[in-house]
Each structure stands twice: as structure tokens, then as C-alpha cells.
Amino acid sequence: MTQEKILALFREKGFRATPQRIAVFNYVYEHRDHPDVLAIYENVLKSNPGFSKTTVYNALKSLCESGFITAITIDGGRIHYDANVNFHGHFICKHCGEIYDFQLEEPVSTLPKGFIVQKKDVYYSGICPSCNNKK
């Protein structure tokens, strides 16, 4: 996504566009492999040597809170980031660690009165086709 498109997207939602937020969002958007904070930090640092890990954490937090990306925790505590904020599921391969997106129908919630759903996560774990074929 171009910087101009990112700026327009941020402006549309009244989100302050800082160089840090732009760089972090662009990396997550361009890398659909669900990077974790270390991958984001190491790669963003290459073109932005002044960024600290704290800067990246703060940008990720702001981007998540504003709905531009989502944080997913599916493999024992490590947080991964996803720019696809539409409802979908994830599959993590227990052999290679890859995380795959898959489409789902939006679930119908029949929660008792008074409950407010704030996040819906669906994930499966197992063995991906690539690893399964290596057996």
C-alpha cells in the first residue's frame, strides 16, 4: 500500500499518522504471514534505524486499538499481527509454525442478554498440506 493510501486511510478514521505508525502498518499490511513483534521490529528497523522496540510496540498497540490491525494469540502466548481485520479463521501448523487464513461465515451469536462480544477468534492447529506431504 502506498504511503498516500495509508495517510488517506488514517485520515478517514481521524487517526494521527506518525512515521512510526505508517512504517509498522505498512509492514504488517505487506507481510500477510502474521508477523510477530520481533519480525516487525527487525524489518522496520532496516529502513528506520532510529526506531526502538518500544516505538514498535506503541505503534502496534495504537493500530490495534484503532482497528487497523488485529493481534492474534494462537500458539502458546506469542502475539502475531494481522492486517486482515475482517472476520476469518486461522490455522497454525504445528510442524512449520506457519499461520494460514481461511474464510468463515460470520457466526450467529445467541449469548444471553447483557453480554457484549468484543472479539471473535477461531483457530485450528494441526499439520499443513506442505508438512503432511513430507511424511
Give a description of the structure.
The protein has 135 residues and is of the alpha+beta class. It has two domains: 3-82, Winged helix-like DNA-binding domain superfamily/Winged helix DNA-binding domain (Arc Repressor Mutant, subunit A); 89-133, Dna Ligase, domain 1 (2-Layer Sandwich), CATH 3.30.1490. The chain has five helices and five strands, in the order H-H-H-H-E-E-E-E-E-H. It has helices spanning 3-12, 19-30, 37-47, 53-65, 129-133, and strands spanning 70-75, 78-82, 89-93, 99-102, 123-126. A hairpin with a 5-residue loop joins strand 3 and strand 4 (99-102). Helix 2 crosses helix 4 (53-65). The longest helix is centred in the middle third of the chain and has 13 residues, at 53-65.
Compact description:
With 135 residues, the protein is α+β, with helices and mostly antiparallel strands.
